[in-house]
Amino acid sequence: MSHTHTLYQHGTLALLVPGLLDGTITMKELLEHGDTGIGTGEGLDGELIILDGVPYQVDSDGNVNVVKDDFTLPFANSHFAKYRHLTDVNELSQAELDKKILSMTSNNTFFSIMMHGTFTNIRTRAVKKSHKPYATLGETAQNQSIFLKESVEGTLLSYYSPTIFDGAAVGGFHHHFISDKRDFGGHVLGFGGATGDVEIQHFSTLEQHLPVHNKDYMNYDFSDWDILSEIHDAEN
């Protein structure tokens, strides 16, 4: 039986901030915890979106690749999909969509949004893979590629985290996108208009998995960092 009320998270966004970018879970292991999800590869190697058990990576050249079982990730979310219809929207900006969704549900629990439809003036990004010694998240994020589509049909996959979990995840929405043609996607920076069907899935349980076998993580002192500011600067 799949646990459709559980959100599985490997790693934390906080560990990315100082550049703890080792891949500490394989895609094969991640898929044991869900058929749907998002993440990034070792060294921030592109942006991942998992749909129907297929893990797609948008790399820094804008290519969409299906990654293999041995692909590793420092951070990822996954869950077993069991969405229900929430609402239909027409030409809503990202800010308007976020606001509408929150007006229809609670912001005190984790949930996922899946929206299929047409998106206009959508901007996405993906980061070029880096290697040890890794730079910080802020420095690495400066080496990002930004992609733009005037109009594209595809799927928006999002996770919402309550503010009190800021640092473990991004407090608020974290959006990834992939086109129906599987030729465009990434971490969403914004869009002008979204038209389509919005589905939602709530989680009552967060299963937080930490990379306890990674010495760099286990020995790192996070106290010198303003983790939340760094996360929000890099994510926006």
Automatic annotation (TrEMBL):
<protein>
    <recommendedName>
        <fullName>Alpha-acetolactate decarboxylase</fullName>
        <ecNumber>4.1.1.5</ecNumber>
    </recommendedName>
</protein>
<dbReference type="Pfam" id="PF03306">
    <property type="entry name" value="AAL_decarboxy"/>
</dbReference>
<dbReference type="GO" id="GO:0047605">
    <property type="term" value="F:acetolactate decarboxylase activity"/>
</dbReference>
<comment type="pathway">
    <text>Polyol metabolism; (R,R)-butane-2,3-diol biosynthesis; (R,R)-butane-2,3-diol from pyruvate: step 2/3.</text>
</comment>
<keyword id="KW-0210">Decarboxylase</keyword>
<dbReference type="GO" id="GO:0045151">
    <property type="term" value="P:acetoin biosynthetic process"/>
</dbReference>
<comment type="similarity">
    <text>Belongs to the alpha-acetolactate decarboxylase family.</text>
</comment>
<keyword id="KW-0456">Lyase</keyword>
<dbReference type="InterPro" id="IPR005128">
    <property type="entry name" value="Acetolactate_a_deCO2ase"/>
</dbReference>
<keyword id="KW-0005">Acetoin biosynthesis</keyword>
